[in-house]
Design brief:
Elements: E1 5-14, E2 18-19, E3 22-23, E4 27-37, E5 42-46, H1 53-60, E6 68-73, E7 76-77, H2 83-89, E8 93-96, H3 110-120, H4 126-139, H5 156-168, E9 174-178, H6 186-203, E10 206-211, H7 214-220, E11 223-228, E12 231-237, H8 238-243, H9 248-255, H10 296-300, E13 306-307, E14 313-314, H11 319-324, H12 337-352
Parallel strand pairs: 5-10, 5-11, 8-9, 9-10
Antiparallel strand pairs: 1-4, 1-6, 2-3, 6-7, 11-12, 12-14, 13-14
Length: 360
């Protein structure tokens, strides 16, 4: 399967080098990940903290170099490009970072932060640059006269909008959003989610969402890849994944979504054991020490990544048996009520508010 951007057997290991009298252990962050993202798609990468999803997002943009594997962007293997060629490609591939309080230079004005990539890629200078910065601020729902203010003068949601404006400054085709709303309040999350969706439609962007909030993923994604200990264990269309998860880990993740009503109850699958260290990966299936369905084969042999007729991919020896037992029944068919309500309210307010209103 070809796409706008492809990961081919990507591997990233950290450490493993001798330091003075000791040797740092190797961290196996990403281990043989492959997938393709189509142009105009919203592709989500989800999993627990420490599963390697943020590392994978940075590998796709070559913010860090892969230990092994390839990243193919528009038919080019960007892992082989020199610094000059990679710099020219940067304007097409941008990132929105997780922490809006740490990702903006506190000593630079907003105008300089947004205007720097415009000058770096020689898109505009002088008055044209200032007009472009003002246009970008309006695009993300901020006032153009904010250009002379500093990051500390803004709220978390406003800072994330500034980060989005900076990502848009180079007129990119692909944006990786690394947990863009995890550091924000729920009310602000809805605004940022809808802003990203709106920009994707208006500008024809391809969006890769790195997140652990499944409510966000259900709302805005086309396909979802579920990661565990540096590997993709299941990948499917968002509706297929949420309505009928097949991998035991995916089922447990979805059952962990809070129930919207305190009197509602449902049976839960239980995780057994502790999360293995990424410096000492389990043999066979990486999930077998915590899987309620594990058998001896799971400890001995790594499951093959199987492609199903509906396009789903998953790596599990016994997914058919688990499905026949009813463990793969629909679990959580919709996003959490609180976030869903905020999204509806924000969309209605957005439709009635002129673009550029600072309270949007």
């Amino acid at each position: 399967m070809t796409g706008m951007i492809e990961a081919r057997e990507l591997v990233k290991h950290f450490g493993g080098r001798r330091h003075l009298m000791s040797r740092k252990p190797t961290v196996y962050a990403v281990n043989g990940v492959s997938f393709a993202v189509q142009q105009g798609e919203t592709f989500a990468i989800v999993g627990e903290s420490g599963c390697g999803k943020s590392t994978l997002g940075r590998l796709l943009l070559r913010l860090i170099d892969a230990t092994q594997g390839q990243v193919i962007y528009q038919g080019k293997d960007i892992t082989q490009l020199d610094a000059g060629a990679m710099r020219r490609l940067r304007r097409e591939m941008q990132i929105v970072f997780q922490d809006p309080f740490a990702s903006l230079n506190p000593s630079m004005t907003i105008g300089r932060i947004i205007g720097e990539p415009i000058e770096l890629h020689d898109l505009a200078r002088g008055q044209a640059r200032r007009e472009r910065v003002a246009e970008l601020l309006r695009t993300v729902g901020l006032q153009p006269d904010y250009v002379d203010r500093f990051p500390h003068e803004f709220s978390g949601g406003q800072r994330q909008r500034i980060g989005i404006a900076r990502a848009l400054a180079g007129e990119p085709r692909l944006i990786v959003a690394d947990e863009p709303v995890s550091a924000l309040d729920v009310s602000v999350q809805a605004q940022v989610i809808n802003l990203l969706e709106q920009l994707k439609q208006e500008l024809g962007l391809t969006l890769i969402m790195v997140a652990h909030d499944l409510a966000v993923i259900r709302h805005m994604s086309d396909r979802v890849a579920v990661m565990y200990l540096g590997e993709i264990v299941e990948m499917a269309h968002v509706d297929d994944l949420f309505d009928n998860p097949l991998h035991p880990y995916t089922q447990i993740l979805l059952q962990a979504i809070p129930v919207s009503h305190p009197q509602q109850r449902r049976e839960r699958l239980a995780l057994t054991g502790d999360l293995p260290s990424p410096t000492a990966l389990p043999s066979g299936c990486r999930f077998h020490p915590r899987c309620p369905h594990a058998k001896p084969l799971c400890r001995e042999q790594k499951p093959v990544n199987e492609c199903l007729p509906d396009g789903r991919q998953l790596a599990c020896h016994f997914w058919r048996e688990i499905q026949n037992q009813g463990a793969g029944a629909p679990l959580i068919p919709s996003v959490s009520d609180k976030l869903a309500q905020r999204l509806v309210i924000y969309k209605e307010r957005q439709a009635a508010t002129p673009k550029g209103d600072p309270h949007a």
